[in-house]
């Protein structure tokens, strides 16, 4: 991983950037348009949104205005819980595609494992994939038992599992399972919404490398072979977050950071989420 354009190869051969921009809680309109354009201008090629973020139109506008060939970009969105089920997922996909103003998606994810629905939702994703409307399909917030259930019904294995992942929630069992199954793990909320930026161990390592605590955490993600999509609306922070390809954490530093694990979430627990 030497640059922002470096990719991981998903199990179906599609190349996905290791690093991208997340737009959770970024306001529709000028805020999302300017942050996505700033990211693309500064070398980002992966943008992650979701139907429930209500900013797909702004992401689409930014893509259009950015003037980068579509095939160079990697665009992800997600089907929301209320739309899960076979037919409703197919409709939700078309709505998202239309809002984004795109002909196809690079990655489409099931946002949460809604019990009794996600297997039907997955069948819809398999259809979209077979029809060539999306280059890769995956899930988000799936625990090992959700994945085991899905795999027992699925025709096509998920290519990606996007989950909350950071030094306070290292998800080692889940990562080992995904690695065994050839499913790429991806981190949302990699900085724990800023809570980890004052963690003494991370601050100490940051000083040693003359980097910011955020850069240390994001580098730790990549060296753990986890795709990461930090969110920011400020151009200087968008640039800073991505300036992590000119140094490497030692094995000792990686272990120090991993040992901060508390199995502590900032977001909902997928097993106790009010779907």
TrEMBL record:
Matching InterPro entries: AKR (IPR020471), AKR5G (IPR044500), Aldo/ket_reductase_CS (IPR018170), NAD(P)_OxRdtase_dom_sf (IPR036812), NADP_OxRdtase_dom (IPR023210)
Record key words, sorted: NADP, Oxidoreductase
Record-annotated NADP-dependent oxidoreductase domain positions: 28-261
One Pfam family in the UniProt entry: Aldo_ket_red
Domain of life: Bacteria
Gene3D superfamilies with a match to the protein in the record: NADP-dependent oxidoreductase domain (3.20.20.100)
Family, similarity comment: Belongs to the aldo/keto reductase family.
Protein name: Aldo/keto reductase
């Amino acid at each position: 991983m030497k640059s922002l354009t470096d990719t991981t190869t998903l199990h179906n051969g599609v190349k996905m950037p290791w690093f991208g921009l997340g737009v959770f809680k970024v306001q529709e309109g000028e805020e999302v348009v300017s942050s996505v354009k700033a990211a693309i201008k500064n070398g980002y090629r992966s943008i992650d949104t979701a139907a429930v973020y209500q900013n797909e139109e702004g992401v689409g506008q930014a893509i259009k205005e950015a003037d980068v060939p579509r095939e160079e970009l990697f665009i992800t969105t997600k089907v929301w819980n209320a739309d899960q089920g076979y037919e409703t997922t197919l409709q939700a996909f078309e709505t998202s595609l239309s809002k984004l103003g795109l002909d196809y998606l690079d990655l489409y994810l099931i946002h949460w494992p809604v019990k009794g629905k996600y297997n039907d939702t997955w069948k819809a994703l398999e259809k979209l994939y077979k029809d060539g409307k999306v280059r890769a399909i995956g899930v988000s917030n799936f625990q090992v038992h959700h994945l085991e259930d899905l795999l027992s019904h699925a025709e096509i294995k998920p290519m990606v599992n996007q989950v909350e992942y950071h030094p306070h929630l290292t998800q080692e069992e889940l990562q080992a399972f995904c690695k065994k199954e050839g499913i790429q793990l991806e981190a949302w909320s990699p900085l724990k919404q800023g809570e980890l930026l004052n963690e003494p161990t991370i601050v100490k390592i940051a000083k040693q490398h003359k980097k910011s605590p955020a850069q240390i955490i994001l580098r730790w993600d990549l060296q753990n072979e986890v795709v990461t999509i930090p969110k920011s609306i400020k151009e200087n922070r968008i640039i800073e977050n991505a300036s992590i390809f000119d140094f490497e954490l030692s094995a000792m530093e990686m272990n120090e950071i991993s040992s901060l694990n508390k199995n502590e979430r900032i977001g909902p627990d997928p097993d106790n989420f009010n779907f």
